[in-house]
Design a protein that fits this description.
By secondary structure, this protein is of the alpha/beta class. The chain contains 16 helices and 23 strands.
């Protein structure tokens, strides 16, 4: 199906089409570009105009540019605009305007990507659903997701993130959601904010983008829940709350049984049960919030529960797999994609509840925590989950604070980098262990995960959840 014709794209982006072309996708990366895509020459670490020729050679249907790069054939299909970023945003707005889709925007300090994927699984059973890819949630990720949206989309799930104040509201206004959700508010990006309450205000600004009569889905359990409610009221939104303290979608019970999280909740006075194919009480809370969103979008509860049961986390976000070693197996909890104090506590709680000969944690620095960083790292030692964890190995300068705070019997190895830690793995892990790897993305805990997989012999690993 054609996504954009040259005429439509030129009108939407206030540009000039060179050639008569059409495209069926939009891409910013020549490494993953598909034939027929519109290549968007953004300026990031490198100027995308340097790769226009390569994109066209790979079959791109056209390229969105602010000037014509040298070396192109005279008949190269292009969309010439004044500013590529602004034009991408214009394309996104036009795609949003031409669809009759019911749209949800999701933000939060923790869990927004997982919740977005839960929603895609739920809504995908009930209509044609379009959702953000990976963690495409920033100033180019949101308009890119919108620009890719087919005109016959019935449900759209847009993830919105931030690093600094003032970033969420403009993106929410591009998405124009009918429902906006804040998964939770926690100590993340404290380098750019004076307090967690300030983070709550920024997250709550997502409600500024709501369509008239829109719904704000808020977490009733967080300390700054009233900040979210006040912002929703100011936006004229209907408020739907979820959590153990909520009246609308109340979580009553959570049990972890192997790789499955089973939950009981009360939804507007009626008791329901739902399950998730991954262990973690935080998944139960995100799943309940997603059910609230699906309901606000007009989804059917039974179909949403079935869709949720079919969801499992992506690589690096809580995937559990069995690694076959000589003499036995180890269970790996790969949560290496990112970390802040709240998500770290949740991951350690999952590890503590798991069954294994020994529970071993490899944890890396949590970034962007500002002046409180060392104290927040050291504070992990006092978490309830630490009682059941036999050994904690620490990676990075900030994790030295946790390493020092741990009792002697739990204090493992400290290294400055994940690469150094990976070299010691055969001495630290043995058959029968259950192992968690978690840290901020820049700490490269994926290297530890890869190192554990390299220990595998023979048949290799058996994944318990789809990546």
């Amino acid at each position: 199906m054609t996504l954009w014709t040259a005429t439509e794209a030129a009108a939407a982006a206030n540009g000039r089409a060179i050639g008569d072309w059409s495209v069926n996708g939009v891409s910013i990366d020549t490494r993953t570009i598909e034939p027929g895509d519109l290549f968007v020459a953004l300026k990031a670490a490198r100027d995308g105009h340097e790769f226009v020729g390569q994109a066209l050679e790979k079959g791109a249907g056209a390229a969105l540019v602010s000037h014509i790069p040298g070396g192109l054939p005279g008949n190269a299909p292009l969309l010439l605009v004044d500013d590529v970023q602004a034009a991408l945003e214009d394309l996104g707005r036009a795609a949003r305007a031409r669809t009759g889709a019911r749209v949800v925007a999701v933000t939060g300090s923790v869990g927004k990507t997982s919740t977005k994927e839960m929603l895609a699984a739920m809504l995908g059973r009930q209509g044609k659903t379009h959702a953000s890819v990976a963690s495409y949630n920033n100033h180019w990720g949101v308009p890119l997701t919108l620009a890719r949206m087919p005109r016959d989309t019935e449900f759209a799930v847009i993830e919105i993130g931030m690093n600094h104040p003032g970033e969420i509201a403009p993106l929410a206004k591009q998405a124009r959601p009918h429902v906006a959700m804040v998964t939770t508010v926690a100590a993340a990006h404290l380098e750019a904010f004076e307090s967690v309450t300030a983070i709550a205000r920024e997250k709550a600004s997502i409600f500024e983008g709501l369509e008239p009569g829109g719904v704000a889905v808020v977490n009733a359990d967080i300390d700054d829940a009233q900040v979210l409610r006040s912002a929703a009221d100011a936006a004229g939104a209907q408020i739907v709350a979820f959590g153990t303290k909520a009246q609308d979608y109340r979580l009553l019970d959570v049990s972890l049984e192997g790789d499955v999280t089973r939950s009981i909740a009360q939804v507007r006075g009626h008791e329901i049960a739902f399950e998730i194919q991954s262990a973690g009480a935080h998944f139960a809370m995100n799943g309940l919030g997603a059910l609230a969103v699906a309901g606000a979008l007009g989804g059917k509860l039974e179909a949403s529960i079935k869709g949720l049961a079919g969801w499992s986390p992506f690589k690096g976000r809580g995937v559990r797999e069995t690694l076959i070693l000589p003499g036995g197996t180890i269970e790996l909890l790969d949560d290496s994609y990112n970390a802040n104090p709240t998500s770290m506590a949740a991951a350690l709680a999952v590890l503590a509840a798991a069954k294994g000969t020994r529970r071993i944690a490899f944890v890396g620095d949590m970034k962007e925590l500002g002046p409180q960083a060392e104290a927040l790292h050291a504070g992990l030692a006092a978490l309830d989950g630490m009682v059941a964890i036999e050994q904690v190995h620490c990676i990075g300068p900030l994790m030295q604070a946790l390493h020092a705070a741990l009792p002697d019997d739990k204090r493992g190895v400290w290294t400055e980098t994940s690469a150094e830690m990976a070299e010691t793995l055969p001495e630290l892990v043995r058959a029968g262990d259950i192992v968690l790897a978690k840290g901020s993305l820049s700490m490269g805990l994926a290297r530890v995960v890869d190192g554990l997989r390299e220990m595998v012999q023979g048949a290799g690993s058996q994944k318990n959840t789809d990546e």
